[in-house]
Amino acid sequence: MGKKRGKKGAGGGDDDWEGGSVASESTTASFLGADASPEVERADEWGEALDWTYESRGSTRERGWERLAGLLRNSVREECWQHAATVIGRCQAALKKGGATEATLAATALALHVLTLGEPDESGYQGVLPDLLRAAKHGKSAAARAAAVDALAVCCFVMAEDDRSTRAALDELRGVWAKRDAGAPLRAAALRGWTFLFTSLAALPDAAAVEALLPAAAALLHDGDVELRAAAGEAIAVVYHTCGLDQLEAVLEGEEEEEGEDEEEGEGEGGGGEGGEGGGEAVSGLSEVVGRMRDLATNRGDRQRRSRRDRAALRGAFRDITRIIE
């Protein structure tokens, strides 16, 4: 809430009158916002928005979170530092007890707040992690779960100081995007968060980890959702670029040989259409992954009908990804 200012008593002399005039002008300026300092105005706005998150009415709390997010997008670093613990505590409370909309807005505000602070804080990360994981898995709406996933990725990237924490977050996010009944928007958010955190690892994963990862991500190249397919392509491109072609080819060499016999048997039975309606077709081997991405870059082999805008977006995404891999 705005700070209350005490009234100055009326004076009798010229000096008093001049002082009263200055005070009156200052008061008028504060109401009209004409000469008020931007820093003071911003601090007052911040305090008022934060106060709204304590209100009993849910719609008022939501307005508070929207306002805080707007302020955070416009750089309020000093206010973040001054109220860091309070903001994080309010976000955690909203994630636990707030409705779907409030939890969504609070998760977004938390991510923006942590980005603005920009400082590693392992203990702080461990403090918010349980609430973010709970919201990501059991949030009251798909939007709330996706926002929690985004916040988890950002908080881990900024605050986590140990590779073990990052790897644990990667495992949690993979558990979300690998779950078929989680919903495509949530899976896409989890996969993009996973990709984002993968780039921050101090040490590359071993060959066994890559071998287990690539087929799972590549299978999503056949999913019916455009965003999920694009996120899968981005993840594969990042893994490829980070681990290197030689490593991936060595990892997949044995797998390609094993699948050769299965493919020959499948041809004899007349199977093998590309890009069916289902979302679980396996894509394994680097050459198959690149081939599938080429198809997606030109919309060849995709039997699912998409709007013109979706097809254009998908083509652009996979052209960029295919360039990275090739």
From TrEMBL:
Domain Interferon-related developmental regulator N-terminal: 25-326
UniProt similarity note: Belongs to the IFRD family.
PANTHER family in the cross-refs: INTERFERON-RELATED DEVELOPMENTAL REGULATOR, INTERFERON-RELATED DEVELOPMENTAL REGULATOR 1
Residue stretches of each HEAT repeat: 213-250
Biased composition (Gly residues): 269-282
Entries under Pfam families matching the protein: IFRD
The name this protein goes by in its record: Interferon-related developmental regulator N-terminal domain-containing protein
Species name: Raphidocelis subcapitata
Comp. bias regions, Acidic residues: 253-268
Signal peptide: none
Positions of the UniProt region annotated as Disordered: 1-44, 253-284
Transmembrane regions listed in the UniProt entry: none
